[in-house]
Structure formats: C-alpha cells, structure tokens
Amino acid sequence: MTTESTSLPPSSGPWPAAGQFSSLAAPRAAAGRLALPARRPARSRFAALPLVAADVLAVLLAVGVLTAAHRRWELALPVVALVVLLDARAGLHRPAALPVGVLDHLPALAARAGVAWCVAAAAVAAYAPVLAIGPLRLCAAYGTQLTAVVVLRGLVLARRRRVARTHPRSALVVGAAGPARRFAAALAQHPEYGVRPVGIVAPQADGERGLPVLTTAEEIHRAVIQNTVRDAVLLDADEGLVTLFQQYGCTTWRVGEEPAGGAMGDHLWGYGCRRLVPVGERRGLTAKRVLDVALAGPALALALPVLAVCALAVRIADGPGVLFRQERVGQNGRLFTLLKFRTLKPADETESATRWSVADDRRMSAAGHFLRKTSLDELPQLWNVLRGDMSLVGPRPERPYFVAQFSRVHAGYAARHRMPVGLTGLAQVHGLRGDTSIEDRCRFDNHYIDHWSLWQDVCILLRTAAGLVRPTGS
Prior knowledge:
This protein has three domains: 49-164, no CATH class; 168-276, Rossmann fold; 285-467, no CATH class. Strands 3-2-1-4-5-7-6 form a seven-stranded mixed beta sheet, with helices on both faces. A two-stranded antiparallel ribbon has the order 8-9. The chain is α/β, with parallel strands linked by helices. It is built from 16 helices and eleven strands.
C-alpha cells in the first residue's frame, strides 16, 4: 500500500482543511488509544417507557371492550407482547430528536396493531376454539386500541413538545457565515423545534454582530463544553466535522438532504434535514460481530497447517522472529497490535513506524516476496478478528504516524475510523492495494461505512475469496 506522495505539507491557517477536525485524535492518550474529545453520556434508557406504557395501556383498554361473556383476557398477553415487539423493531419507541405528531406514526402503528391482533386471535382460536372471537368483535377491539393509542401517545408527545420549547437544546450551525446566520435566525424565531443556535462554525468570520463565529477547533471545543451543545446542524457536508461532533456526543443533522423515494422527512422550518446516524447506533452491528466470529474461528482452525508452513518458511529464510507485531489505529482511534508474518526485518523501530512501503526492498527474501504477493502474511490477523481488534470487512488499519499525516491532507481520512477496521474492504476488492491512491481509498471506505449492510460484508468477502486466485499482494 502506498500514496501519491509521502511528502506531507503542514496545514496552514487556523481553520483546518476538510476532514481535519478529527485529527484532534492524533495525540496519544494514556488509555492506549488516540485522544478523542470527551463523549457525552447517552440518553436515558428509560426515555422510551412512556410510549411503551401508552401502547400497553391501549391494548388493555381494547381487550376491555369485549362483553363479560366474551372477554378474552387470554389475548392480552400475546397482543401486548407482539405490539411492543413490532413497535420497538420499527423504532416507534425511540424519542424523536425533532418534534413529531402522533398522526405521523399512525399508519405504522395501525399496521403493526392489525398484525398483532390477527396473529394472536388466530393462535388462540387454533389452540382453544371455544375462545375464538368473531370478526366484528375483533374489529371493535382493534378500533378501540387505535383510538386509545392516538390519545395516549398524543398526550406523551404533547408534553415532550412543551419540554422542547421551554428547554431547547443548544446547537451549532456549520456552513458559510451568511447562510448559517439566516438559518440560525429562522431557528431562533421558531422555538417549537427545540433547537437554540448558540454559535456558527465557518471558515472565516464575517464581522457581523450576533452569534459568534467559530473558526478554530479550539473555539469549537470551548463552545461545546460551555454551552452544553447537543446538536450540530451542517449546511455543508464535511466528514471530519461530522465525526468530531459525533465524538462529542452531539446529534448531527445534514440540511438539504431529503429521504429517498420522495418521502416527507424531518424538517426545520421548511429546511429539509436528515439525521446522520453514528455507526455505533446502526442496527445489525451485533450481527457483523457474530459473522466475524463465526467465520474467523473456523478459518483460523482450517488455516493452521498453512500457518505452520508459512512460519517454517519464514524461520528458515529469515531466522528467528516469525511474527511481526506493529501498532495500528482501530475504531475510534483505539490502538492495537496487528499481527503479520514477518517478510522483512526493519533496521529499527523508526523505520517500522514511518517507512511507507517495503514491497521492492532488496532485503526481502524469496519467502517474504511470496507471502506478500499471495497475502498469506496477513493470515495471523484472523486472531486480531477473534480478539475484536478488527473485523473481517472494514477500512484497512494504518500506523499512527500515517493516520496523523493523512488526516491533515486527505478530506475524510480520519472519518474512516468510525467503523471497525478490517482484514479486507470495499477499496481492496476494487484493486486499491499496493501503490494506489490514498484519496481514492478513503472515499471507498467512507462510502462503505455510510451504506453498510451485512449483505455487503458477505459480498466483499466473496469477492476477496475470488480475488485470491489472481493475487497481487500489497
């Protein structure tokens, strides 16, 4: 792997280039990771309870509409369980970051309530026909639940809107000073959104009076702490700023991006916006870890004979010290020790940490060349995957020295560390290995993170396996 140039100019001026705010993570912290801004504690896990209680109470009221002779309290437990489970899976219990009305969620609530009642009634009738309920009574119970859920959820959401208006969340608006001031003025005039701008993040100050313009990372840091900033609204896209604010625990919004398919999404006084979900909050990441363990464990066991042959070849060709250990940067700047078969013994630790490519080094033995060309030198990293240092699929990890340098030069490079680093990745299956562009690689890596899915991981693993028959090495 290499880049267009390893001669890296220092950044100039007080305003970091695009993507450079995450370079605040470059200094090492005492806990064995790169220093990151302090993250705010997550919202209370009990914030969803009022909406859960509303759903449960609505079901109980619906069961109560059946007459004494036909009351089927046996239905209450399965319907409650199904309704709560289906609503939770759809995210209908999560506190909304922006004010919403109960009618916005009514179609989703109605569909899931209908499924719950039909499934529960069919199951009860199948196992106890004497308890079967006719369609008219079932429709009456269903209608009662919908009416009750509209009233109860409406009360909960109305209270949340009042709290949002009286206790707005502090926010920073990111963009050119002029448009950012106009957007901040609109928010200030409409407190019903629960967002109160306290500053503007812009490349240059405009000299206007009003909200302060923050032009350096230090000013942002101070403003976030002093004003307890909870939201960052970005008029201009910048992966580095998104990562920085998410590391602070702020909710990040991208203004001007509407949801796909023409659906009406969130808006701030007519400005269409979309919440940028941190990787750690995405669904399915547990499944990603399960996939890693399920595949890496058997693969490591099956590869033991190959590992033994590789280790013997390295020992015979290059002497003692079969494994090469090197410090790399993982998810969220955490440092870990990456394992490889040694293909070249560096002159000293400085060379190991700062020399970019050794692919054409004449000191490399024939065994080392073969291992690198076939990527067999990477096999010990299956142990890193099992340990949780890495994933099977993700951005390739790099040394701290180069992470700090590339973060100052390539927009979005530091944002690659939002996701667990990987043994292979989207960039690698597109041929971006060896002497290829770092800028292209970080663009592929960020695209992978922004559109991650478990199926995409499977596809990348299959493409990596297919690529092993035509190895190019790194």
